[in-house]
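Good morning,

Both structures are done.
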Amino acid sequence: MAQTLIERRDFLKRTAVAGAGLLILKSGTLSGQAASNKLNIAVIGVAGRGAGDIDGVKHENIVALCDVDANNLAAAAKRFPEAKTYSDWRLCLEQKDIDAVVCATTDHTHAFINTWAMNRGKHVYCEKPLANGVHEARVVRETYLKNQGKLATQMGTQIHATDNYRRVVELIRDGVIGKVDDVRIWCSREPKGGTYLPAAGQPPAHLNWDLWLGPSPEHPYNPEYFGGCLAWNLYWDFGSGQIGDMGSHMLDLPYWALNLRFPTSCEAQGTPLSTDTCPQWLEAKWEHPATAERGPVTVYWYDGGKKPGMPTKVFNRDELFKGVLFKGDQGWLLADYDFRIVMLRGDMTHYQRPETKDIIPPSVGHHQEWLNACRDPKLPTLCNFDYSGALIEHNLLAMVAYRTGKRLEWDAANLKATNCPEADAFVKKTYRQGWTLNG
């Protein structure tokens, strides 16, 4: 198959190219926007991703800081000495002058903080994933929908704000590879398995272990749970494995480009089922019904070293650690965070892109987009909790299918697998006494 490199400026000018087409493009940069007035912001979870989120909103008024680790809290307080400090996020949310909340805690507390904050009239920016289960994601989404037009929300999938993702969405929607019916996504991280960790002495004085556990069942302290999301998110009570973590970024691209919502079925397989840890590898499949804009679409996910069997080698990119491969009736589009490649089956006579400026304008920045909407909730946020709640619900349904070992016929309206009543136990979690999801 002949391959021709096409620069973007030439690609936009041409409506037909003889032979198979190959397009490789790099993403652009983000631009900022100055605030006209300052918001009062609480940051819950101030280290790790929380530190990055602080940098995204530090030009506002940081009036509250919250963390279960007193050392992390003290370090953040040095930067913002006027901010009140808390170890318990529930107390933090009662501070009266807070306009908006940034949530960057461990995954198993995300849904709680999101709903509690919105129930108190606060705008919310939450790191991915929005929730740690299907029912949790639905509660967060429905709470937002009750407040839509009044509150601004954004899930922290920062890659959504890149120029490259925008160009991929445009190309797919413009029909560069024709009608898409198949998308394959993979991430080659290979986390460890095992069991919940044994007791390892008393927690250090600076750590409130009980608040770190939050709504999850009781577990003894062990320092190996710490060290970033790859340390704790492989455990069912604290995270949702790679599909909760990297899946939030990678599945976001086809979800956006194809206007996907709720699937009609889901099935998954992986390493032998553990009561303690998520699978070390997972393969999942969702079927999406046709809409007025497109035909039916099947979405596949692979992690833990598994990869799709077609046709990454065509692109000389078989070594890719992660990627998204769209298959259309006119060709393929392969993408990652910072590139996209189009490979056509024949010529480009089917493709008639208008010579106009880019359809999706450059992002002002993922945090800034949210901050602008906090000032005017009628402004859009592309990863609001309606969009991202549906995305996370979709992704984590794969974990339900994996744990049941069955292909689920999915009734999204009622949050039920119509053919598998035992799925209910994995759709909706139970929580430690004293913890309320929608408080």
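Second structure follows.
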Amino acid sequence: MLVMKILVKALFLLLGGLVLATTQAEAQQISIGGGVGYGSKAENANVQVNFYYRLSSLPMRIGADGSYSIPDKSSFSGGETRRDLVDGNLNLHLMAIDTDLFSMYSITGLNMTYNRLKTDFDDGSSISASDTFYGFNIGVGTELEIGKGRWFGEAKYLIREDSDESEFVVGAGMRIRI
């Protein structure tokens, strides 16, 4: 487990440095966007943001995305429990099809997930526990040009160090080129 945490952190730094070190970005090669999704572990909708840079000499994009699951709340006799889930990914998209109208790509990347569980009791006291999980993701995605941006749809599986925390995630939204 410790080796996986160190490996994932090192790869996060390496990919992050690669993105920051790219200084000759052309306007049409950078895209930002957002959307909504659903994760099988959170069993709740989430909101997403993403940033991608198209490598001009290779059929690839590198970038990052993040999501925040709408808090899952449950009441019980004597209080309420709330679960917050935040995901961050550094991704590589290998472009199988990449035209002005339509793109299809595979997704692979690194994942970091923060999970917090907080229980508030009616007497005013509370307890909280949190974990951070590291792992990898693999999936597929597609984009369709609509004139003002590109609609995207993605499906990926997050393989986390704690196999009980692994999950299937789908998302859809829009990206614009800047």
